[in-house]
Specification:
- With about 170 residues, the protein is α+β, with helices and mostly antiparallel strands.
- It has a single domain, classed as Lipocalin, CATH 2.40.128.
- The chain is built from 2 helices and 8 strands; from the N terminus they run ααββββββββ.
- It has an 8-stranded antiparallel barrel with strand order 1-2-3-4-5-6-7-8.
- A hairpin with a 5-residue loop joins strand 1 and strand 2.
- The chain is globular and about 50 Å long.
Length: about 170
Amino acid sequence: MFKKIIAICALAVLFTGCGVLLADKITPEEQALVQQRLDAQSYRIDVQFMLPRRGGQQALTSPYSITVNDGTIISHLPYVGQAWDLPYGGGKGLNFEAPIDSYAEERSATKRTIVIGTDNEEDYVVYRIEVYDNGKADIRVRSQHRDQIDYRGNLDPNTDPNKKDK
């Protein structure tokens, strides 16, 4: 009886893992749309996980994102970590809208690496974003006054950042 329960649990884990792999696939049309959004520098990445320097990965339950559009970055991200030399009350953190000071991009066979620099009037923040062909994205945020922090999310090719839906 015990062996049957173990076998059933193992199969459940296996099939759950396969479902996750299948969920990562997007259609060729959506893949082309991801590339179009990146080419136009007009996209939103919805963030589902936060990876602070200290502690483990944390799933996010509220809607968090970064949006790049018309030479502006809108950062709506939670922050966990050590900070120093900040305004009273913590300041803006990683929740702000600011013009993009620098935008650089590298392409490889399976992903694009984008580096965005911006000054939000309290801190200079650099976003290093890796967007894969399937829309998955890894984000590393560095600033002058806070510990580095990483995020994971998705670039939804069907989300138009010009529409204010959030």
